[in-house]
Design a protein that fits this description.
It contains eleven helices and twelve strands. The chain is an alpha/beta fold. Bound molecules: S-adenosylmethionine and iron/sulfur cluster.
Length: about 325
């Protein structure tokens, strides 16, 4: 076993998020503009290259792999990649293989994901209202996602719902969404909207609903108990005593948790971003393609990249302006 990956701030890197495509069948207003230009296929890592890359990270101590995008399940033949990663679950080197999805393709793939060793899935869903869903995702349709969630639960997958907290959009659904999730035995995590990528005419500050305010609203109706649980992510959790479910808060703006960050992100073109909120990245595709038979060179490039992991991001809306903005779309780095 090689020495583990430790960054300059003594944080061990055990979590890799991999964006397997920048494409998506939705166009969520906070994530993409309607007329996105996507990368040419030749720039993408092939599924074999993704395998080699992820396997190298696993050899260097990565224990959790989250597949994301764009929409990971629209990448052709992506299930073969999941099946290939199962060998690392079987060997015990990988503790968890999971994905974040918009749910549109779950009805097709839920059973196969289970066969590949996936046990939990995050499904992003910001509203329970069909019209609002069509509006926020532009191209998405709620019944399709609902069918996906049902199929996933029937296949035995544990579902967590992720919702972006959006002022004037889903504030009025705080309790209905909580109760809908509780009735289906699902945890629910709220995310503060981050200033990533050009999204056309949408207004970031206008979208921003502070999770401190959201939490205070929840506490007016329910008894919230802080939980020590960490899932290797930036979310902090409470339990709602009345329903028993967990509610997560991802608060890059009101409170960042960079000090305990254990993750790095690989894009579909093989760039490694050491922080979601910074522009620094390392081109691992070159190391991979220039040395097809030498994982030592890839390992060297990975270690050099980890040595550059910054302390944290600089997202900040507190001066009534959007600071710390990064130009990449979330779908590029993978949310
Ligand atoms: N397509 C998949 C999905 O929607 O779950 C995976 C990729 S998506 C980029 C991952 C997560 O990022 C989603 O939960 C989405 O809501 C969130 N997201 C996208 N843009 C965001 C932004 N600007 N701020 C906060 N969260 C964002
Ligand atoms: Fe697609 Fe996910 Fe971005 Fe929505 S949030 S546009 S589903 S990548």
């Amino acid at each position: 076993m090689s020495a583990p990956l430790i960054d300059p701030f003594q944080r061990p890197i055990s979590y890799l998020r991999v964006s397997v495509t920048d494409r998506c069948d939705f166009r969520c207003v906070y994530c993409m503009s309607e007329d996105m230009t996507f990368l040419p296929k030749k720039d993408l890592l092939t599924l074999e290259e993704l395998d080699r890359m992820c396997s190298t990270f696993i050899r260097l101590g990565v224990e959790k792999l989250r597949i994301t995008g764009g929409e990971p399940l629209v990448r052709r033949n992506i299930l073969s990649f999941f099946h290939a990663m199962k060998r690392h679950l079987d060997s015990g080197a990988l503790k968890e293989l999971t994905l974040t999805t918009n749910g549109s393709q779950l009805a097709r793939f839920a059973d196969e994901l289970v066969t590949a060793g996936v046990r939990r899935v995050n499904v992003s869903m910001d509203t329970l209202d069909e019209d609002k869903f069509a509006k926020i995702t532009r191209w998405g349709r709620l019944p399709q996602v609902m069918a996906g969630i049902e199929a996933a639960q029937a296949a035995g997958l544990k579902i967590k719902i992720n919702a972006v907290a959006l002022k004037g959009f889903n504030e009025d659904e705080l309790f209905t969404m909580t109760e809908w999730c509780a009735a289906r035995d699902m945890d629910l995590t709220w995310i503060e909207v981050m200033p990533m990528g050009d999204i056309g005419n949408e207004d970031r500050l206008g979208q921003y609903w502070k999770l401190t305010d959201l939490r205070a609203r929840l506490a007016e109706r329910y008894t919230l108990t802080d939980l020590p649980d960490r899932t290797g992510g930036p979310a902090r959790y409470v339990r709602i005593e009345e329903t028993g479910q967990r509610i997560g808060f991802i608060t890059p703006l009101t409170h960042n948790f960079c000090e305990s960050c254990n993750r790095v992100r690989l894009t579909c073109t093989g760039e490694l971003f050491m922080c979601l909120g910074q522009e620094d990245n390392a081109d691992l595709r070159a190391a991979l393609r220039n040395h097809p038979d030498d994982d030592g060179k890839l390992e060297e490039a990975i270690r050099a990249a980890i040595a550059l992991k910054p302390k944290g991001h600089d997202f900040d809306y507190s001066r009534q302006s959007v600071d710390g903005r990064v130009s990449r779309h979330m779908s590029h780095t993978g949310g």
